[in-house]
Amino acid sequence: MSPAVSYEKQKRRATAGIVSSAVVLGLSLSIALAGWFFLLDAWGQALRAQQRETWFDPWEDGGKIQTSYKCWNMTGLSEEFAMDFKETYHYCFAFGQTGVPLIVKMAGSLEEFQPYRDALYVEGAQMPEAFMLRGVAAPIEDDIREFAIESLNILYDGQVVSEDDFEELIGVSFLDTTKKPMGGADFAAGIGCGMFGLVFGGIGIFLLVVNIKRRIRVGRLLEKERESMRQAAAWQNTAYDTAYDGTGSTDYGRGYDSSVWGYEARESQSAAASGVRLTPLKKSNPFLGILGAIGGSLLGVVLWLFISFVGFIAGFAGFVMLKCALKGYEALSGRLDKKGAVLSLLITAFMIFFANGLEYVIALCRAFFELDASVDTIRYVLMNFGQLMTETQSWGGFYMNLVLGYGLSIWASYRVIWGILTFKEQDPFN
Description:
By secondary structure, this protein is of the alpha+beta class. The chain is built from twelve helices and eight strands. The protein has helices at 3-50, 114-121, 142-155, 166-169, 187-243, 258-274, 286-309, 317-333, 338-369, 375-383, 385-391, 395-421; strands at 53-55, 69-74, 76-77, 82-83, 89-95, 101-107, 131-139, 173-176. Strands 1, 2, 3, 4, 5, 6, 7 and 8 form an eight-stranded mixed sheet that branches.
């Protein structure tokens, strides 16, 4: 197969890749746009729910959709009897004008409600004006129920409530003042579609850029190949016409040697037939290459997390991480040189550490999500990562996993690493 035919096939494949990438990009943008509309609809439903107010009923099912704010006039507030693991949410008893307590969940410092505490604990304290609490109804969980029973019996200095009559006296729901009513809003669908669309949109853009650059490169090579073949044919014809003028004499006119012409023609034809092209080395773009290496290594991070979650040692993912980093650098930079290879190796080394840390962050979030599945929990885990790792005695496993990760990655890809360290660029003119 001649080089020109090979380049034609590569050009068609690059064109097909451009079309496929454009289709992926279009579908991804459509999904992202659908996610945006889902978010707008959810936001509208939440806004409508937050514009309505109804009085809180402790015997209302707190598990159903909250379509309005629940309100309660508080005249007294007890000391907290429970708090969450982050010590940011406090569970107390709020007393109304009838003296009947209900459980409320409040966030932050409770110092501003000191007059309501004094009204409950300090004899002769002045009764403050009623304060309206606003929130949503939430079901009382078993652990909160146990703490509430114990606290009420201490508060009234006697066995005033038990498991049997708790729901009859206190209710089945508490007032959660830390949340807003969202109606039937489903932000998860919008966020899910949006993230899916953005991720695959990024992949589509990456593939589109790679295929466009590939088509341009192949097109230039094809044009050079055709030009080389045209010059070879022209040189051969010119050498023949000049050497033989039709009279049988050899007039070389300007002193050209026919043997030289014949040699040049044969060399040009040989180069064109073999596909050898003596072109200068293409200059790479390190900035784009680094972005490509980071993007490629992130694919290895995803594989690392997937392998770890199914219970296998994730160190072998380091080899894939390195290969993807090298491919990503070459795709966006235009050429893989020694500098790019070393940068890809350094990026991969950092990404192995990042993937291992992210694995433990996700594991901690999954454990704490059983207590409170929220963005605030993720922030809490990130801000207190070192302390939580110490409390859960996870540092040993962290470092062991890191050593195994680096060790298995080096073992699986030592040939690639050695090739990077001994990589020498070849200049075709030397």
